[in-house]
Write a structure and sequence with these properties.
- About 75% of the residues lie in helices and about 0% in strands.
- By secondary structure, it is an all-alpha fold.
- It has one domain: Growth Hormone, Chain: A (Up-down Bundle).
- Helix 12 packs antiparallel against helix 16 (about 385-415).
- The radius of gyration is 22 Å and the shape is globular.
- The relative contact order is 0.16.
- This is MFS transporter.
- It is found in: Cell membrane.
Length: about 475
């Protein structure tokens, strides 16, 4: 029978002090918040990936309408600038806002980041010219970059220790839905009617309807507003509260989690690890990372892992249409191939939600890299066989998105609570520069290579990242404060 099955026992747990609250949290083996909160947390991922993918197809219409001299034939040549500035915004946003998160709390920052993101998307929808469109992409990136870091950190701190990768993958299903909505809505609203499979026969863009891209960003702003409204209901991370010395608040959150968890069965006795020390909050979170040999080494390794991995991830996520046109597919056909690929994204998210905890994070990364390579070979060898290109695209999206969610879990687990958001931001944020490199440096080189060689080159970044990940700490099922004291 659970020690915390009644209020008296919960008070006894609180008497154990900060370490006792962490022990109570670590003993829970099931999701211990309302299941509604999984969807609430996931709204950020849904918007983020909607925003990442919507430009993949819609940019042709945007460019033609806003940029002088831009035509449907040459529009994708200009895609790199808004994508790169959006990623620069990611880097700045996550490096500036995430350390503030370690000071003011996860929940408060989740509201701030989504507000910034929503305003950026609204600015995109109303942009009067190309310069303003570029500026709006930068602002949106500031919010999204920080939001990705804070969502992953929050999820890592409230999920059961034997389910951190699982619930990261569960929430990542919302990412897949965002990508699916973004890219297919782009086809519907911003491309002209074309017979399948070169396009959509019921697409809406025409000489009399050229503002579909504005509607896409307006929908993004609405999604951000809804996300803000529901995020107000989230409790603060009890781990962060303990680190701030707010023991009574942390006890209240954990007691609520215990009440949810006890409905699934009795809770084990809390065990306070003898080597677990609850350290005070960091006044300068970056100093916590750079002042420790352990965290300096982890940060260096994970930064290079994300840098090289994002070369591949963003070449496919935000630039796949450019990659495909670079290997001689017409822009409308490239958009359809990328859209079909998002079905692989959905399948990957569901698969990882079911099986993420079956293997260590280190093993999933090379497995999903191999899957991505298989997809690249299929698309490269497809030639004019669109069915094979569709299959290869779905396999690519299955692989590279299956790579991301265990990498998120591994990264958040590798830094201490007092600077977890900062550590995640540092490696993931600076790592996005690799995404810039993929968009800027690789795309111009692709037309000079055969299709297979081009797609294998794009995927090599993930190969390097997966090798590096083998040297990261083993985190599966371990107590956070033991992995990252």
């Amino acid at each position: 029978m659970s020690t915390f099955a009644n209020p008296a026992s919960e008070s006894a747990g609180a008497d154990l002090g900060p370490a006792g609250i962490i022990a109570r949290l670590d003993r829970m083996t099931v999701w211990s918040l309302s299941y509604l909160f999984i969807g609430i947390i996931g709204t950020g991922f849904l918007f983020t990936f909607y925003d990442i993918f919507d430009i993949n197809v819609s940019f042709v219409q945007t460019c033609v309408q806003l940029k002088s001299g831009c035509t449907p034939e040459n529009a994708l040549d200009s895609l790199s600038l808004p994508v790169v500035l959006n990623l620069v915004g990611y880097v700045i946003g996550t490096l500036v806002l995430s350390p503030i998160c370690d000071r003011i709390g996860r929940r408060n920052m989740l509201l701030i980041t989504m507000l910034v993101t929503g305003l950026g998307s609204l600015y995109n929808a109303l942009a009067p010219d190309y310069g303003n469109f570029i500026a709006a992409r930068f602002i949106t990136g500031i919010g999204i970059g920080a939001d990705l870091a804070v969502v992953n950190v929050y999820l890592n701190e409230v999920a059961p220790r034997r389910g951190r990768a699982k619930f990261t993958a569960v929430v990542f299903v919302m990412s897949a839905l965002g990508a699916l909505i973004g890219i297919w809505l782009g086809l519907l609203l911003t491309t002209g009617k074309s017979p399948w499979p070169e396009g959509l026969p019921f697409a809406l863009a025409s000489d009399s309807f050229t503002s579909g891209w504005r509607w896409m960003y307006a929908i993004g702003a609405i999604l951000a507003l809804l996300s803000i409204l529901v995020r107000v209901e989230l409790p603060e991370s009890p781990r962060w509260l303990v680190g701030q010395g707010r023991i009574a608040d942390a006890d209240a959150v954990v007691a609520g989690m215990e009440a949810h968890a006890s409905r699934r069965g009795p809770l084990a006795e809390p065990v306070i690890g003898s080597d677990v020390e609850i350290k005070p909050p960091a006044k300068l979170p970056y100093r916590e990372i750079f002042g420790s040999r352990l965290y300096r080494r982890r940060a260096a390794l994970l930064l290079v892992m994300w840098f090289t991995g994002y070369i591949t991830v963003y070449s496919y996520a935000s630039g796949f249409t450019s990659v495909l046109t670079g290997i001689k597919y017409a822009p409308p056909t490239a958009g359809v191939i990328a859209a079909v690929g998002t079905l692989g994204f959905v399948a990957s998210s569901v698969f990882m939600a079911l099986f993420a905890e079956r293997l260590h994070r280190h093993y999933w990364l090379p497995i999903n890299t191999a899957i991505t390579l298989v997809g690249a070979l299929l698309v490269g060898l497809a030639g004019s066989h669109l069915g094979l290109a569709f299959l290869g695209s779905a396999v690519i999206f299955f692989g590279f998105n299956g790579w991301v969610s265990p990498s998120y879990a591994l990264t958040a687990e590798s830094f201490p609570t007092r600077a977890r958001s900062t550590g995640f931001a540092l490696v993931d944020g600076v790592g996005h520069i690799g995404g810039c490199l993929g968009i800027v440096a690789l795309a111009p080189a692709l037309p000079h290579l055969n299709a297979t060689a081009a797609l294998v080159l794009v995927t090599l970044g993930m190969v390097v990242a997966s090798v590096l990940a083998q040297f990261a700490p083993s985190t599966r099922g371990r107590v956070l404060d033991e992995v990252s004291p």
